[in-house]
Amino acid sequence: MKLYAVARSPFGARVEAAAILKGIPLEILPPPAEGLKSPAYLAVNPMGRLPTLVLDDGRTLPESEVIVEYLEQMFPEPALLPAAPWDRARTRLIGRVAELYVMGPLFGLFRHLAAPADPAAEALFVDIERGLGHVEAVLGGQGFAWGDAPTLADCALAPFLFWVKELHRMFARPSPIGSFPKLASYDAGLQTHPVFGPLLAAMAEDLAALRAGR
Fold first, then answer.
1. What is d(CA 81, CA 70) in angstroms, rounded to the nearest whole number?
2. Residue 139: which residues within 8 A CB-CB, separation 6 or more?
3. Nearest of 205, 199, 206, 94 to residue 144 by alpha carbon
């Protein structure tokens, strides 16, 4: 299988994390030179976004949450969703809360990079901190997002937290993650995890290359 993605994307990283944890080989394809809105890529993904999974038979699947759920069903071992219905629901809840209440306002900040003092940007920072509080409230606190082993929640949350820290750095603001004890401990553990540590380092390297114009 192939995956159209860039390493710095939290959504591409979400899929890559799931694939690595499951031992699924994925060929990573860069965005087409003609752009995501080119006719050739729109034939692959009508939304013109990343990531997109390309199956061996040529069928394509967009949207990171859908892709990781597909991989979980097609390659059930090792499982990235717990067996018990309650634990499965909590795992999905963490990823959903992080995407809605953290990533939503976080991406809004890109519109304000040229005017960091804009009051609208300040409101987004307030929303992000509130969203992190929601994540703190639903986080399991047992080493991973929910339970004592990686799940699809970690595949989502780890790259999301990378961008929380990165965008605060871009606006010359301290990361708010340290204000949340469970999140701070969780984030620290990610840095040395054998899968998430290298994945987060690859995100940072790709972002640095983008800034350097490479």
1. 12
2. 94, 145, 146, 182, 183, 186
3. 94
The secondary structure element, H or E, covering residue 121 is helix 119-138
Tokens 């999905």 — which residue? 92
For residue 171 the two structure tokens come to 């606006």
Nearest Cα neighbor of 162 from 98, 210, 78 is: 98
Q: CATH 3.40.30.10 spans which residues of the chain?
A: 2-74
Q: For helices 10-22 and 64-74, what crossing angle results, to 10°?
A: 10
Q: Is 3 strand, coil or helix?
A: strand
Question: What predicted TM-score, i.e. pTM, was given to this entire model?
Answer: 0.95
Looking at domain 85-213, which of 3.30.930.30, 1.20.120.10, 3.40.50.720, 1.20.1050.10 is its CATH number? 1.20.1050.10
Average pLDDT over residues 91-114: 95
CATH topology of domain 2-74: Glutaredoxin (3.40.30)
Contact 132, 176 (CB under 8 A): yes
Q: How far apart are CA 105 and CA 160, in angstroms?
A: 12
DSSP 78: S
Tokens 């990343």 correspond to what residue?
A: 50
**pLDDT tens digits, 75-88:** 999 999 999 999 99
Residue limits of CATH 1.20.1050.10 in the chain: 85-213
Average pLDDT score, the chain: 96
Does 214 score more than 80 pLDDT? Answer: no
